[in-house]
UniProtKB/TrEMBL annotation:
SUPFAM superfamilies: NAD(P)-linked oxidoreductase
Name of this protein: Oxidoreductase
Domain spans labelled NADP-dependent oxidoreductase: 2-288
Pfam family of the protein (one): Aldo_ket_red
Annotated PANTHER family: NAD(P)-LINKED OXIDOREDUCTASE SUPERFAMILY PROTEIN, NADH-SPECIFIC METHYLGLYOXAL REDUCTASE-RELATED
Molecular function as annotated in GO: oxidoreductase activity
Organism expressing this protein natively: Puia dinghuensis
Cellular component terms per the entry's GO annotation: cytosol
Amino acid sequence: MGFGTEAGWGADRETSFAIMEAFANAGGNFLDTANLYKLGTSEKFIGEFINPRDRDYFVIATKYSLKDNTTNPNASGNNRKNMMRSVELSLRRLQTDFIDVLYLHIWDDLTPIDEVLRGIDDLIRQGKVNYAAISDTPAWIVSKGNTLAELMGWSQFIALQVEYSLIQRTPERDLIPMARHFGMTVTPWAPLAGGALTGKYLRGGQGRVKPESNRRDENSIRITQEVMAVADRLGVEPSHVALQWTRQQGFECIPIVGATRVDQLEENLKSVDLVLSPDDLKKLDEASAIDLGFPGKFFREDGVRQNSYGGFYDRIIPRS
């Protein structure tokens, strides 16, 4: 999202290339972007970087839905017309014949989900897309879509991208149990809550998260302080703890880490060397616990867990 300097922030071409080079040298090969990021500049930079390299080594994910042409009334939404138009433009910017993972970026509350799935399935059959995925969409819609796809023989959604972090755990109410049921990989955006979980704001640092944001409210500060305490005890950075927490949730989870400087990427990559102990996970879970609401909270009541459903919810979200 930060490749390009449109809107007054982000990484220029040279810095973006240096970030991707450092990522590739570290063994990284999964790049996540979108048609709208930096008005298309992100896709252009990625395409220019990968074009002289081994395309098959990289897994490129991009998204469609959000408007990328304000003069065209058809250049937005989940509909098939916009999907086909957007994918063709993304292929040109990315300088590739195919997109590995195509996400529906955000639900428009208008297009029938079967239209979306049939459209992506057609793109997959044409060889322009390898896998279907979905982002920022209610669990019941994703469930309906994957069930329809199974019945119709279409390609199902294989990944779910939602905001998920120690500060934002509400997807545990239904989105993540749904993803686990369908075997979908979760690819959280903002796993560091816009940098709040690095502790930089508590240390007086500056960033794009405004003081009035809920990422910097009393509850978020308390969670961040616990992250910093665990990090201090382990001798690592708070970002390592926050990122590794997402990777140790008991389901397939690949946090999407944004970087506008090489040193940010290099620091975040160190999280793969960390393993949080059960005690560390418990402290973090307790500090960031949310009210699951009904029926999740009801399922956790001792009497219900012991006498009724046999611990189903504990198996879906083991520690919450």
